[in-house]
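Run log, item B.
One chain of 351 residues. Sequence copied directly from the ordering sheet:
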Amino acid sequence: MPKPIRVLIVDDSVLVREAARQALSGQPGVEVMDTAMDPLYAMEKMAREWPDVIVLDIQMPRMDGISFLKKIMAERPTPVVICSSLVGNGAQIGVEALRAGAVSLISKPKAGVSAFFENESDNLVAAVRAASHTNLARLRQIATTLRPIPPLVKPARPGTLSADGRVIAIGSSTGGTQALETVLGALGTDLPGMVIVQHMPLGFSKKFADRLNQDIRIELCEAQHGQRVEPGLALLAEAGKQMRLQKSGSGYIVEVVEGPIINRHRPSVDCLFSSVAKVAGPRALGLIMTGMGDDGALGMKEMFDCGAHTIAESEETCVVFGMPRVAIARGGVREVQPLHKIAERVRAWVG
């Protein structure tokens, strides 16, 4: 029998602690190790036994959740699922939590907590299970990596680079916000246009894009329906909508629509990659990075079969080696690279 995932719940509300405990208790392979009303009590309990996953609120007495998250990542990196009413609707504090090392966010209501955990127990359990697969060595790297210094002046984007119809498509999930920061931060503007799907909670894609755009040379923004794909511009799919690449004259535009859920996700990497395969074929580069599950594996195989160059992030640097692993297993990957070498390989493809 495999060892159960030991979970510590940290929240100042006794109602939330009990509701979360009930949602997780009895789930196969999951064990609520303990609960704590704030980070200081949590640290006392963790001195005796360390959890596999922490479910963490943000607003608490004596120490807030973000400060505790940063302390954990600095001292002993551990997978953390943020569960807070403060992270709804794309709140900036949620972006800060992801940047500090949280593996996922769950927005809980301020009222009706018991009903919420009863109805959303599957999502909480899935988040805990996904967090338990986190590569702790990679979390340690994230905790110690210096953030890029924002450029004083963002360079002008080139205007003619995409004349040959080339495009770069990227897909990522758990741990992907940090991976995107690493890759995009190492690239200049002299590149074909990019289209990106990163699984995120509703409301977070624009906040994430706006924040990261301040730190990189490439122009990054949340994609708008009908927007042109241009050199030096990266378009991030809106959370809750599907994004597809469409041909438009000698170039491309993006279609951003509600659309059905595909492979359990909206936006879906499979949806984006499949559209890129159809309209760009061998003129595309596909990149799949850290993430739980298999979204993007089928779409990457389609890109591969159409002659696109495809790259998967290697297990050694993935926070969760799920999506890349399945893409490799299905034969859709031409090369496997650690995160710190991906930008170099992208530049080599551009030539």
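Observations after the first pass:
- The chain has two domains: 5-132, 161-350.
- The chain is about 35% helix and 20% strand.
Flagged for discussion on Thursday.
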